[in-house]
Design a protein that fits this description.
Layout: H1 5-10, E1 16-28, E2 32-36, E3 44-47, H2 54-57, E4 65-74, E5 82-93, H3 110-115, H4 124-146, E6 150-151, E7 157-158, E8 170-171, E9 198-200, H5 205-215, E10 217-225, E11 238-247, H6 251-272, H7 274-289, H8 301-310, E12 314-317, H9 318-326, H10 329-332, H11 348-359, E13 363-369, E14 385-393, E15 397-404, H12 409-418, H13 427-434, E16 440-446, H14 447-455
Parallel strand pairs: 3-5, 6-10, 12-13
Antiparallel strand pairs: 1-2, 1-4, 2-3, 4-5, 7-9, 8-9, 10-11, 11-16, 13-14, 14-15, 15-16
The structure holds 4-amino-1,4-dioxobutan-2-aminium adenosine-5'-monophosphate (4AD) and magnesium ion (MG).
Length: 475
């Protein structure tokens, strides 16, 4: 039976027989193999008999897969507690080192590895990133399960635009070179697969709200799709989002839940993936060294994560944020590219100023002007702002978007009308406001942005195995 390398490295036994299988990371002096099976960051050193058949040793090349029977012994060399003295080595799959892309003399760049996403799991960096991603996904479910939330699977194909932003991918089986037309000449979606126009979902929120009207506390965690043409290091066309929805919570409860949740995720990863995070912290520190002194971040990855665990997030209103920005040095020196004025949305440069320069900690901005936020957000008493909350994180910008929902039917329909959102198509949503409506709140955490934050990676394409971005759907 195969033993995982992690089990051997983290155990304290010696002098026992094992079988291990994995991929060769290096082979030196025709004698020492560094073998990795992905169960942890570390390789196990396999020491082979110098008399091993040449036919076998010739095929022990980087990337080849092998099976080793041998004995775990105390290591003679430095740098490892134990190693395996090999008795039999079987080559499972050879690897042509001439054409193996990870065989480069120089350390391959992240950009290069993005083009080799089918192989990049096998590097230390991506091994660590995707083990952390897994741990965070597990922690999401654990956090909510332990608090009695019900996990609801919201649909991926939908006829509604939850965010009202019109950035959707259409789902259709109509022939697009010659679609059926109505008498007036527009496309006749009645003949389409679902008998209406459908899209990939941009959010599971509206359906989560329906379920919250029975379970009180629910969450959804699934893929979401946005056809926004944003080719940035923070945007994906296909990303994963976690959306809790809680009946009886107001905006303050909502902020408390989001803060607790983010802290819990970080703590979980720090406790369970220490080795990966330490490796990623070192990677980031090396990357920072390449930058000019004044562009380097003040904290290392681990310090930053500990800081977030130990400090409360700053909470300010949108109006405060605008005032702070308008009295800032970059504003006065006209360094901001986008305008700062009450009513305009905060751009990433403004968010980063607030978080990284002004407060130097995560910031929750609340009470945005109604004009820049979605139709379902609750109107405040001032009649101008809504009970929205965005969490801004250092190095990331917006990581969470949420709100208290408009539970009053008349106010909601009024707002939908003003925003040209067809009430008849959302009558099922409005029913929650007709039949036992309650105050309720929720938010969406962008999973990849959270993984970015915890791993210290800087491009969102490097924290999802196979990124989908404008003009790119390889693999
Ligand atoms: O702020 P957003 O658009 O909020 C919603 O979708 C609400 N329905 C959530 C809710 O209240 N239930 O998106 C939520 C989060 C953002 O803060 C960001 O972290 C992430 O989703 N996000 C993206 N992540 C990667 N690529 C994109 N294109 C993203 N768009 C949003
Ligand atoms: Mg948002």
């Amino acid at each position: 039976m195969r033993t995982k390398i992690k089990t051997i490295l983290t155990g304290d036994g010696v002098d026992y027989k094992v079988n291990v299988k994995g991929w060769v990371r290096s082979f030196r002096n025709n004698q020492f193999i560094a073998l990795n099976d992905g169960s942890c960051m570390g390789n196990i050193q396999v020491v082979i008999d110098l008399a091993t058949d040449e036919e076998v040793t010739r095929n022990i090349t980087n990337g080849a897969s092998i099976s080793v029977d041998g004995t775990v012994v105390a290591s003679q060399g430095r740098g490892q507690r134990v190693e395996i003295k090999a008795e039999t080595i079987k080559i499972l799959g050879t690897c042509d080192s001439e054409s193996y892309p990870l065989q480069l003399k120089n350390k391959p760049s992240l950009e290069f590895l993005r083009e080799k996403a089918h192989l990049r799991f096998r590097t230390n960096t991506f091994g660590a990133v995707f083990r952390v991603r897994h741990a965070l996904a597990y922690a999401v479910h654990k956090f909510f399960n332990d608090r009695g939330f019900v996990y609801v699977h919201t649909p991926i194909i939908t006829a509604s635009d939850a965010e009202g932003a019109g950035e959707m991918f259409r789902v259709t089986t109509l022939p697009f070179d010659n679609p059926p037309r109505t008498e007036s000449g527009s496309i006749n979606y009645k003949e389409d697969f679902f008998g209406k126009s459908t899209n990939l979902t941009v959010s599971g929120q509206l359906e989560a709200e329906l379920a919250a009207m029975n379970f009180s506390e629910v969450y959804t965690f699934g893929p979401t799709f946005r056809a926004e043409n944003s080719n940035t290091a923070r945007h994906l066309a296909e990303f994963w989002m976690i959306e809790p929805e809680v009946a009886f919570n107001d905006i303050n409860d909502n902020m408390d839940l989001a803060e607790d949740f983010i802290r819990y995720l970080i703590e979980h990863a720090m406790a369970h993936n220490r080795e990966d995070i330490e490796f990623l912290a070192q990677r980031l520190a090396d990357e920072e060294k390449q930058k000019p002194q004044n562009e380097r971040s003040e904290m290392g990855l681990i310090e930053k994560l500990e800081f977030v665990i130990n400090n409360k997030f700053e909470r300010i209103t949108y109006t405060d944020a605008i005032n702070i920005l308008q009295s800032s040095t970059p504003y006065k020196k006209k360094k901001f590219q986008y305008e700062v004025k009450w009513g305009a949305d905060l751009q990433s440069e403004h968010e980063r100023y607030l978080v990284e320069k002004h407060f130097k900690k995560p910031v929750i901005v609340t009470d945005y002007p109604e004009g820049i936020k979605s139709f379902y957000m609750r109107m405040n008493d001032d009649g101008k702002t809504v009970a929205a909350m965005d969490i801004l994180a250092p190095g990331i910008g917006e990581i969470v978007g949420g709100s208290q929902r408009e539970e009053r039917l008349d106010k909601l329909t009024e707002r939908m009308e003003a925003m040209n959102i067809p009430a008849d198509e959302l009558s099922w949503y409005l029913d929650t406001r007709r039949f036992g409506t309650v105050p309720h709140s929720g938010f969406g955490l962008g999973f990849e942005r959270m993984v970015l934050f915890v791993t210290g990676m800087t491009n969102i394409r490097d924290v999802i195995p196979f990124p989908r971005t404008p003009k790119n759907a390889e693999f």
